[in-house]
Amino acid sequence: MVNEVAIDRLIDGVLEREGGFVDHPADKGGPTCFGITEAVARAHGYGGAMKQLPRDTAVSIYRRLYWMRPRFDEIAKHSTRIANELFDTGVNMGPAVAITFLQRALTALNRSGKDYPDLTPDGRIGAATLGALERFLAVRAKGIGETVLIRALEALQGERYLRLAERRPANEAFLYGWLANRIGD
To answer: Is the separation of the CB atoms in 50 and 38 below 8 Å?
Structure first.
């Protein structure tokens, strides 16, 4: 199980990767600070200049929106490595996308439904997703199974980054960094 100190370290790592204030002209999300978009900051009560977004506000947003709300804390009860991977992907692509990757990967790895039923990739963690993860880890030897599942999650993430760059050439400005900093950490 992930304790508060571990969650704080996880969030610290995201804050370090995301950096401070950024207003890249190719970023459709607009100005960010610590990786938090202005729209997300405003939706959660921050009314000041994005350049001055307090670090503790960013930490609170990450904990609430990107860890607790998507239920990655529940995933961590089964595997902290997988929860950490989902958290980082969720920060960058949205928690529902990360959860959909998990659901797709678990379904692809269920040996045609022999280990557990196929999942509907709905982007929500519920009893079926948690049950499938628990069963996958039990059947596939936790350490090795975790590694294989993380590789599947990263493959889906990498494919999505490439697709984003292909569909919107302005995203090529971010592709190298995404691949360098978000996959294989």
So the answer is: yes
Structure tokens that stand for 61 in this block: 């947003």
Instruction: For residue range 124-158, list pLDDT tens digits in order.
Output: 999 999 999 999 999 997 779 999 999 999 999 98
**Nearest residue to 135 (alpha-carbon basis) of 145, 126, 144:** 145
Global pTM reads 0.87
- Whether 103 and 122 have beta carbons less than 8 Å apart is answered as yes
**What CA–CA distances, in Å, run from 84 to 53, 61, 87, 95, 107?**
24, 16, 5, 12, 20
- Cα separation, 67 vs 58, in Å, equals 13
Which residues of the chain form beta strands (DSSP E)? 21-22, 32-33, 36-37
